[in-house]
């Protein structure tokens, strides 16, 4: 096989490559760099021949180490390369060499490779099984054997699988477990039939109660944020500041007007729930959700999600991605309700290969690990 060359590419080259593919992560498009002002972003391209078109791309974010000219280099849910190439080294070796030359002491990446899937029924059965404490304890509905080979190749090349951080299966970086509803080849009626009885009942109840769902714009972000801050306090997580969402909106919609959407569920003149939706190619993500504890009986969340799913289907999405879920099935886990909610939409729980680190400077990498372990 030919050796691949890697070099920085322009924003237009990067976007053209992504546009020619079915999809890529929303964290691997050029605009994502503008969402992260504390990081310096750079677009990279892999080439088989000089002057040709890129055969792979990656958005790398550089985070500086205070007082040192060294960086953590991070490719969230990327890079966008041929992960099933039998010679992965020809992709990753030039990337490591380039990032080392740019002052990186550690490289972190998230291969967009699926390991296994559990149907909604399998998830429901796992939750009810007293012997299943984590999702991985339950028999998967399908497996991707090549994912195991990729993991073995990465380990053999010196990559280390990052420890899951955060709470109950939510990684410190990006989630390893997500919930997705496949749309490809399915009519909207098929998708609706895939919802469980509770979801269908709640959608109908919201409609009868007069809940309306509308798209919002930049000026509605403060209304979204008010609910988001309430949700953070209720669900015990640290909220991002409002300017983060304003930057996200400005950067993503400048790149593509449909890259980010905002939805708000109203009832009697009050916003009860709100959510952001992201689109790259035929992959649609439910990104951030927020709701108030008031008037939950009118089911604004189900109404809003169904409107988002309907719009995603109209856009030609092949998958509606609910993003992160807990892999812990204990009843005491406060995130279990969120898993039940997402599983009620039909679809499947999906496990990805997770995030991987390559220490280019072992001393600094160890210091980073200690710092991350001590964070509150």
Automatic annotation (TrEMBL):
Keyword terms, alphabetized: Acyltransferase, Cell shape, Cell wall biogenesis/degradation, Peptidoglycan synthesis, Transferase
Tree of life domain: Bacteria
UniProt keyword Transferase present: yes
Record field: transmembrane: none
Membership in a protein family: Belongs to the FemABX family.
Name of the protein in question: Lipid II:glycine glycyltransferase (Peptidoglycan interpeptide bridge formation enzyme)
Organism name: Streptomyces pseudovenezuelae
């Amino acid at each position: 096989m030919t050796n691949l060359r890697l070099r920085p590419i322009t924003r237009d080259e990067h976007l053209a490559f992504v546009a020619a593919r079915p999809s890529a992560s929303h964290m691997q498009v050029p605009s994502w760099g503008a969402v992260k002002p504390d990081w310096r972003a750079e677009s990279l391209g892999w080439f088989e021949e000089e002057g040709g078109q890129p055969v792979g791309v990656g958005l790398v974010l550089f985070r500086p180490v205070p007082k040192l000219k060294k960086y953590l280099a991070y490719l969230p849910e990327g890079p966008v390369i041929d992960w099933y190439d039998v010679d992965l080294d020809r992709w990753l070796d030039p990337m490591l060499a380039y990032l080392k030359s740019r002052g990186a002491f550690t490289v972190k990446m998230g291969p967009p490779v699926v390991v296994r899937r559990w149907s909604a029924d399998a998830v429901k059965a796992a939750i009810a099984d007293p012997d299943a404490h984590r999702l991985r304890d339950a028999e998967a509905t399908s497996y991707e054997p090549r994912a195991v080979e990729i993991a073995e190749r990465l380990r053999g090349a010196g990559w280390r699988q990052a420890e899951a951080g955060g709470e109950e299966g939510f990684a410190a970086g990006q989630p390893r477990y997500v919930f997705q509803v496949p749309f490809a080849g399915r009519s909207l009626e098929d998708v609706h039939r895939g919802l469980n009885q509770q979801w269908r009942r709640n959608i109908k109840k919201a409609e009868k109660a007069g809940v309306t769902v509308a798209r919002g714009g930049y000026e509605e972000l403060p209304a979204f944020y008010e609910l988001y801050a309430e949700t953070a306090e209720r669900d015990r997580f640290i909220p991002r500041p409002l300017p983060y969402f304003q930057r996200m909106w400005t950067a993503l919609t400048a790149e593509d007007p449909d890259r980010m959407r905002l939805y708000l569920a109203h009832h009697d003149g009050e916003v009860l729930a709100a959510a952001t939706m992201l689109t790259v190619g035929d992959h649609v993500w439910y990104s951030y959700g927020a709701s108030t504890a008031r008037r939950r009986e009118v089911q604004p969340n189900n109404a809003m999600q169904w409107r988002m799913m309907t719009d995603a289907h109209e856009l030609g999405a092949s998958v509606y991605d609910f993003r992160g879920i807990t892999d812990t099935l204990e009843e005491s886990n406060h995130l279990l309700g969120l898993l039940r909610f997402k599983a009620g939409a039909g679809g499947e729980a999906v496990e990805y290969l997770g995030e991987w680190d390559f220490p280019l400077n072992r001393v600094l990498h160890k210091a980073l690990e200690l710092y991350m372990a001590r964070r509150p």
